[in-house]
Amino acid sequence: MTLRRTKIVATLGPASSTAECIGALIDAGMNVARLNFSHGTANEHRERARLVREMAQAKGKHVALMGDLQGPKIRIARFSEGGVTLERGDNFRLSTSHPLDEGNQDVVGIDYPALVGDCRAGDELLLDDGRIVLRVDSVGRDEVRCTVTAGGYLSNHKGINRRGGGLSAAALTDKDRMDISLAAELEMEYVAVSFPRDAADMHLARKLLEDNASQAWLIAKIERAEAVADEAALDGLIEASDGVMVARGDLGVEIGDAELVGIQKLIISRARRQNKLVITATQMMESMINSPLPTRAEVSDVANAALDNTDAVMLSGESAAGKYPIEAVQAMARVCVGAEKHPTSTRSGHRLHQTFERFDETVALAAMYAANHLPGVAAVITLTESGYTPLIMSRIRSHLPIFALSPNTPTLGKVALFRGVQAIHFNPTDMPSTDVNQQAVNRLLELGYVMDGDWVILTKGDVYNSRGGTNSMKLLKVGERLV
Ligand code: G6P
Fold first, then answer.
1. Torsion from C-alpha of 439, 444, 446, 447, nearest 10 degrees
2. Dist. CA 388 → ligand 1 center (Å)
3. Is 282 a catalytic residue?
């Protein structure tokens, strides 16, 4: 049985909110359902979350929920006529005092006063994901005066970035704080923070989650130029998070598309090296918003992220608002499985020359080296309370499936995002301790993942159902009587 290693995050939206569609997305391979708090009402998100839980349970699958905070995206206000066409060479002003509904050919309002303080003559402002470019000529008390250097149609609410980054907006807005409590209420497994500048933004988000009694893991979206300005900045942000997202939309605008691919590879490898998760996002199957088949370039993009060992690839508009949400998940699943056959993804030199810090980390890594290097091993089984042991295991490249066995539903949801890890419900305290190995292997046999004669490697601790205690690994032969 081929188990896909690279996981799929699919954004739910108007195109994918019925029970039927969500069920079909799960069948197609959605591992994580992303709810984008930039769009929709709290009640719409509640309903989608409820349907994901209901359909996953009906299908016996573990699917995580990820809430994606809107963050401080800086946007222009509105035009009287809905939009204007700007020509190269036109003068155009962004004003904090102009009425928010009355933008015109010369000026548009903006409700972010700090923009005036953040801009200098000579800066380049990128609107609508870089489709329109303005050069700052001068900065007044309440406005930024610009010349259009790349024109086009500019409509209401389009986003603003500065080339090179450096706009000072704080990462967590009042709306984000409300959405964090919504994520807590819906017991989401993951919360993604938009536009974090540094570790302090992530620490604040974590405190807000704790205040709301949420167990969610935090994903830092890497989308500001300053987050990748140097390795220390990137490492600091990774360190403060449980995982990161390569959010290629805004990141590409701020650092330029030429830098993007190299930075994507750097982020993936540094996250994995620091024992963190990584999601590759934005426009992966963009043409599938309108077409049932991806382009060759999109196939190549998804396959390359899988070959680089991303934990997950992500769909945004394709599944939220496109015509072919199910086909997009199917295409991603197919392309990932194809890429994973490539032999470079089956051997690892991960952390070979480092010392380890913890016993459980040591056992997890030792188990993976043994599994990778001993012929005949068909699977790795890890008993886990929090997901930590399978997380460490899945940082190592391998062609073997890792089965995370846990009695904890939130943990099983979380591991759904981990590369190469399959979630299985299993409670070792339901049985005599001398039976645990046998019953764990029996579960895999029942599910058809192993056969008599296979070797499996199993890790656990001396005490059941308590985190951090993993201290043993055992080689077990399927079909023999196990103790
Ligand atoms: C389960 C097992 C324990 C093991 C623990 C590791 O609870 O029963 O024997 O020590 O998982 O959990 P962790 O959260 O550290 O992966």
1. 150
2. 8
3. yes
- Residue 3 C-alpha to ligand 1 middle, in angstroms? 24
Q: Please state the pTM of the whole predicted model.
A: 0.94
Residue at token pair 């990584």:
278
- How confident is the model over 454-467, as pLDDT tens digits? 999 999 999 998 89
Radius of gyration of the chain (CA): 24
Is 147 designated active site? no
Identify the residue whose C-alpha is closest to ligand 1 atom 9: 461
pLDDT in tens, 243-262: 999 999 999 999 999 999 99
Alpha carbons within 13 angstroms on the beta-carbon side of residue 76 total 30
